[in-house]
């Protein structure tokens, strides 16, 4: 077997409770995005496009749909002899079983997976961001700096900096200090939750951390501060493309709307194509009385009504006279005749009966949960 | 259905559809926005439970090979059985005409397969059929050969095999006709038989001077076999001419046909390309059309089929047309009754108009 230079581990166990009804039945990384994708397609496609072919996906919360979706990893061309997608849920050992108690603990519980792959470097990713990034450049920078760890950072507006983990660096990018949600930030370089570690270095810190009884076993709270305290070589790597945390209903909605700009801020196709599992469905049909503008529509949908400024996933039915605007309509949703949907996210397989209304507002997006039906009289007004 | 091996014969005559099949077999003609014709037969076989399919390659096999590859998209990349390519013999190619020599050349492949039955079909039909019912019918009637037909609803020209049957499906006459009429029982070129009968048919017919499997092996020897026929009452189109291709494409704009072919229990599979969902811009105006993923639409489209990755500029008007993969229709152009093959570029402000039912064809990679 050929040696794995860089092993990727995607933390995909989060519940994503801030996404409310959207993650009642599925894990956050499995949440649909952009008309045909799921959030986890982004880190997986980034790995495949960066030449990283061995990817561990750590799952925990509501993993069934995610496991089913990942399958053999063939959708991302990762089903290779020396690679693949490895699904890593928590498992029982001789002395009992534990849930993943934190991001670092999740990786620690799979330390044997890392050791058996025996990589030079480990790339740690999270499954809740929309971005297109070539990790091979970050790895290159890690090697050039002879770093122990390299942390991906993103310049955020100064006023938002107090919401993030902020890196204070010297002029060479070496991290001097890490502040979690500082009230008075000294820098606006936010951690993207993307780490490259030299494998042996990481293993040592994880093993030490596991022994600590006071640690919360979290990369940001425990591991990184400990490394800095030990004066390890930690460097930042700045990313300046499109990067969006889609951890809330509003940000998920906004990231979808970003795709509808006349010139979208990033290209889903093109050289850095985002791959996903494609359902076998025909091109969508737009009926004789339909009207579609400023929208994205995927395969297998039938549009007989009006669609404006919306993202329509596959297998959606929009009936005659229906009006859908400023909304995200996830797969297999049915919108009945003359129904109205505005400023809403409709989860997979939900329905608005004929004449029904789902009306949110800017800043107060209405969410219709998976499988839920909104009847004509009671218009759906549950909180987002 | 594990006892049935599928054979798709891609050796069809394509004189009437030459503009579109200059560089490809008719079976690999792009169809319905994202498919190739062969997808319908192959997917029907796979959905029926057939796991061993031999594809008799045409003279220009590249587009077929590039499309099917390992068979993975049809779940046919298997450790055992799966998809096999049966190339045409090279030396004898000029000596004798017809497709029978190719079957004869590949006899050992058929004989060595573990399946008891073979299902032979062409790849130029549009349908979504469950063949597993056909096998039960075949076993119940004790037929030597069971074929599938549909009842034509309108007159159309082109060579077709037409049959007459008794009420129980027993075939009383089978012949090739230059046209079909409303009510004609028209063969869908699907034949199910035991492999034993199939290999004997090939060997005997070829060694006695035969050329064509259907004509010399089945039609001429029809009185030697007990032939039954089962009717398929769903949508069927035989794409054997440019007119038929255009008509079958337009048939898809009737939502019932679209639903029946693609949205039922049995999907039609094709090569996966990871296209982005269609981007409709502010100036887009689309009516009664099929638009495949990867397209960017700024202009007007009506009664048309737009394949994957097509860009339609501002002020463009496309009507009653078929625009194949990756074509680029630039600002201000006007297209009516046109078929653009793959990678066509229509530069700004060009007007192209074909006649109704006789579309203007723009060949592959053309820049106008």
Largest sheet of chain B: 9 strands, mixed
- Name the CATH class of the largest domain in chain B: Alpha Beta
Q: In oligomeric terms, what are we looking at?
A: heterodimer
Helices of chain A, by number, come to: 8
Could you tell me the strand content of chain B as a percent range? Answer: 25-35%
- Helix/sheet category of chain A: alpha/beta
User: Structural class of the helix and strand makeup of chain B?
Assistant: alpha/beta
Report on this structure.
Chain A has eight helices and 31 strands. With 384 residues, chain A is of the alpha/beta class. In chain A, strand 4 (54-58), helix 2 and strand 5 form a beta-alpha-beta unit. In chain B, the strands form six sheets. In chain B, strands 1, 4, 5, 6, 8, 9, 10, 11 and 12 form a nine-stranded mixed beta sheet that branches. In chain B, strands 14-17-20-23-26 form a five-stranded parallel beta sheet, with no helix packed on it. A five-stranded parallel beta sheet of chain B has the order 15-18-21-24-27, with no helix packed on it. Chain B is elongated. The mean pLDDT of chain B is 92. The interface between A and B is large, with 41 and 40 residues.
Describe the secondary structure blueprint for this structure:
The complex is a heterodimer of chains A (384) and B (368).
Chain A: E1 6-11, E2 32-33, E3 37-38, H1 41-50, E4 54-58, H2 64-70, E5 84-88, E6 92-93, E7 96-97, H3 103-109, H4 111-117, E8 121-126, E9 129-131, H5 135-144, E10 149-155, E11 165-169, E12 175-180, E13 189-198, H6 199-211, H7 219-229, E14 234-239, E15 243-245, H8 249-258, E16 284-286, E17 291-293, E18 295-297, E19 302-303, E20 306-308, E21 311-312, E22 317-318, E23 323-325, E24 328-329, E25 334-335, E26 340-342, E27 344-346, E28 351-352, E29 357-359, E30 366-368, E31 373-374
Parallel strand pairs in A: 1-4, 1-8, 4-5, 10-14, 16-19, 17-20, 18-21, 19-22, 20-23, 21-24, 22-25, 23-26, 24-27, 25-28, 26-29, 27-30, 28-31
Antiparallel strand pairs in A: 2-3, 6-7, 8-13, 9-15, 10-13, 11-12
Helix pairs in contact in A: 3-6
Chain B: E1 4-9, E2 30-31, E3 35-36, H1 38-47, E4 52-56, H2 62-68, E5 82-86, H3 100-105, H4 107-112, E6 117-122, E7 125-126, H5 132-141, E8 145-151, E9 156-165, E10 171-180, E11 185-194, H6 195-207, H7 213-219, E12 227-231, E13 237-238, H8 242-251, H9 255-262, E14 278-280, E15 285-287, E16 289-291, E17 296-297, E18 300-302, E19 305-306, E20 311-312, E21 317-319, E22 322-323, E23 328-329, E24 334-336, E25 338-340, E26 345-346, E27 351-353, E28 360-362
Parallel strand pairs in B: 1-4, 1-6, 4-5, 8-12, 14-17, 15-18, 16-19, 17-20, 18-21, 19-22, 20-23, 21-24, 22-25, 23-26, 24-27, 25-28
Antiparallel strand pairs in B: 2-3, 6-11, 7-13, 8-11, 9-10, 9-11
């Amino acid at each position: 077997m050929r040696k794995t230079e860089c092993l990727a581990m995607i933390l995909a166990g989060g519940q994503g409770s801030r996404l409310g009804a959207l993650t009642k039945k599925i894990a956050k990384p499995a949440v649909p995005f952009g008309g045909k994708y799921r959030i986890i397609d982004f880190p997986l496609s980034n790995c495949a496009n960066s030449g990283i072919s061995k990817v561990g996906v750590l799952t925990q919360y509501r993993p069934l749909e995610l496991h089913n979706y990942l399958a053999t990893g063939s959708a991302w061309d990762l089903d290779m002899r020396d690679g693949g997608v490895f699904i890593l849920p928590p498992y029982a050992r001789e002395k009992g079983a534990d849930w993943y108690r934190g991001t670092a603990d999740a990786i620690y519980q799979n330390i044997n997976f890392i050791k058996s792959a025996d990589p030079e470097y480990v790339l740690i990713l999270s499954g809740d961001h929309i971005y297109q990034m070539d990790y091979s450049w970050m790895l290159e920078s890690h090697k050039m700096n002879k770093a122990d760890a390299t942390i991906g950072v993103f310049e955020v507006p100064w006023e938002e900096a107090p919401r993030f983990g902020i890196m204070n660096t010297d002029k060479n990018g070496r991290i001097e200090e890490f502040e979690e949600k500082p009230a008075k930030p000294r820098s606006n370089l936010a951690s993207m939750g993307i780490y490259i570690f030299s494998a042996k270095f990481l293993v040592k810190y994880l093993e030490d951390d596991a022994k600590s009884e006071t640690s919360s076993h979290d990369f940001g709270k425990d591991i990184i501060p400990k490394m800095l305290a030990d004066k390890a070589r930690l460097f930042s790597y700045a990313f300046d493309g499109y990067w969006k945390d889609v951890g809330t209903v509003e940000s998920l909605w906004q990231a979808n709307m970003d795709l509808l700009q006349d010139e979208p801020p990033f290209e889903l196709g093109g050289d850095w194509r985002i791959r996903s599992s494609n359902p076998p469905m025909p091109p969508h049909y737009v009926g004789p009385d339909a009207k579609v503008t400023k929208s994205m529509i995927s395969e297998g949908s039938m549009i007989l009504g009006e669609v404006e400024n919306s993202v329509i996933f596959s297998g959606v039915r929009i009936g005659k006279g229906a009006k859908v605007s400023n909304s995200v309509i996830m797969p297999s949703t049915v919108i009945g005749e003359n129904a109205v949907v505005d400023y809403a996210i409709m989860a997979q397989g939900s329905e608005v009966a004929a004449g029904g209304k789902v009306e949110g507002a800017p800043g107060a997006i209405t969410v219709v949960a998976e499988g839920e039906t909104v009847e004509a009289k009671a218009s759906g007004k549950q909180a987002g | 259905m594990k006892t049935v091996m599928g054979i798709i014969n891609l050796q069809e005559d394509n004189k009437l559809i030459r503009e579109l099949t200059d560089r490809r077999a008719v079976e690999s003609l792009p169809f319905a926005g994202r498919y190739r014709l062969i997808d319908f037969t192959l997917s029907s076989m796979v959905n029926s439970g057939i796991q061993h399919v031999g594809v008799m390659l045409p003279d220009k096999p590249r587009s077929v090979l590039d499309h099917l590859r390992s068979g993975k998209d049809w779940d046919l990349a298997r450790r055992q059985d799966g998809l096999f390519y049966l190339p045409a013999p090279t030396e004898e190619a000029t000596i004798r005409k017809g497709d029978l020599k190719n079957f004869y050349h590949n006899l050992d492949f058929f004989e060595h397969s573990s399946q008891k039955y073979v299902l032979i079909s062409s790849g130029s039909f549009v349908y979504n059929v469950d063949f597993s019912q056909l096998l039960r019918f075949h076993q119940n009637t004790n037929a030597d050969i069971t074929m599938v037909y549909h009842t034509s609803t309108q007159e159309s020209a082109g060579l077709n095999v037409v049959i007459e049957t008794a009420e129980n499906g027993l075939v009383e006459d089978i012949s090739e006709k230059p046209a079909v009429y409303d009510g004609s029982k028209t063969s869908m070129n699907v034949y199910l038989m035991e492999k034993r009968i199939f290999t004997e048919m090939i060997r005997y017919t070829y060694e006695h001077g035969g050329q064509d499997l259907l004509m010399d092996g089945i039609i001429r020897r029809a009185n030697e076999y007990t032939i039954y026929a089962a009717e398929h009452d769903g949508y069927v189109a035989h794409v054997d001419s440019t007119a038929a291709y255009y008509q079958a494409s337009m048939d898809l704009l009737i939502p019932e046909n679209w639903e029946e072919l693609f949205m039922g229990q049995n999907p039609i599979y094709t090569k996966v390309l990871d296209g982005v969902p269609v981007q409709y811009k502010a100036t887009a105006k689309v009516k009664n059309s099929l638009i495949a993923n990867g397209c960017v639409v700024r202009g007007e489209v009506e009664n048309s089929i737009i394949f994957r990755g097509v860009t339609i500029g501002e002020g463009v008007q496309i009507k009653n047309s078929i625009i194949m993969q990756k074509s680029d229709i630039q600002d201000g152009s006007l297209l009516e009754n046109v078929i653009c093959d793959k990678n066509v570029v229509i530069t700004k402000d060009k007007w192209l108009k074909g006649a109704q039912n006789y579309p203007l064809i723009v060949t592959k990679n053309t820049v106008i």
